Amino acid sequence: MKKIVLTLALLGVMTMARAQSVETFLDRYKTLVEQVEASDSISEEQRDNFKNMYKELTDEYHATYKKQMNNDQLELYMEYRTRYRRHFAREKAEVIGERLDSAGTHAWRGVKKAGSKASGVLKGIFRRNKK
Q1: Do the beta carbons of residue 22 and residue 69 sit within 8 Å?
Q2: CA 21 to centroid of chain Cα atoms
Q3: What would the DSSP string read from start to end of 71-111?
Q4: 60, 95, 117, 129: which has the fewest Cβ within 10 Å?
Q5: Are 80 and 29 in contact (CB under 8 A)?
Q6: How many CB atoms lie within 10 A of CB 110?
Q7: How far apart are CA 17 and CA 120, in angstroms?
């Protein structure tokens, strides 16, 4: 009887320790996300620090916590991960949008030039000499 009670107590302590470590991990991830979202502008150094922290937490998740998380914890992890990635995706989209605008302007100039060249060739072919 003592062995059963001792085993159950040990199992309970191990479960609490496991849950505490997952909770600690999720708290660290939440802190990262809140720091990223609180920053109005992010310097290159900060961006590198955030990326390194993100990579470290992601590696920890795959190595240790993925197997340990229950559904609620996994949902919370995915929320934090998505919030982090969304922030940098917006920033990247703005840069790409600016580049596309610039490329579109250059492409339009090229199309206009090509159209002028084609028009000149066609006029040269079909225009009758007036002599």
Answers
A1: yes
A2: 25
A3: HHHHHHHHHHHHHHHHHHHHHHHHHHHHHHHHHHHHHHHHH
A4: 129
A5: yes
A6: 10
A7: 80
- So what's the pLDDT on residue 54? 93
Give the C-alpha separation, 29 to 50, whole Å. 11
106 neighbors 55 (Cβ within 8 angstroms): no
Alpha helices in 39-70 (DSSP H): 44-60, 66-68
- Per DSSP, the chain holds a count of helices (H) and strands (E) of 4, 0
Amino acid letter for position 35: Q
Sign of CA dihedral 88, 94, 97, 101: negative
Give buried/exposed letters for 31-70 (b at 16+ CB in 10 A, else e). ebbeebeeeeebeeeeeeebeebbeebeeebeeebeeebe
CA dihedral of 110, 116, 120, 123, whole degrees rounded to 10: 140
**Which residues of the chain are under the pLDDT cut of 70?**
1-20, 94-95, 97-131
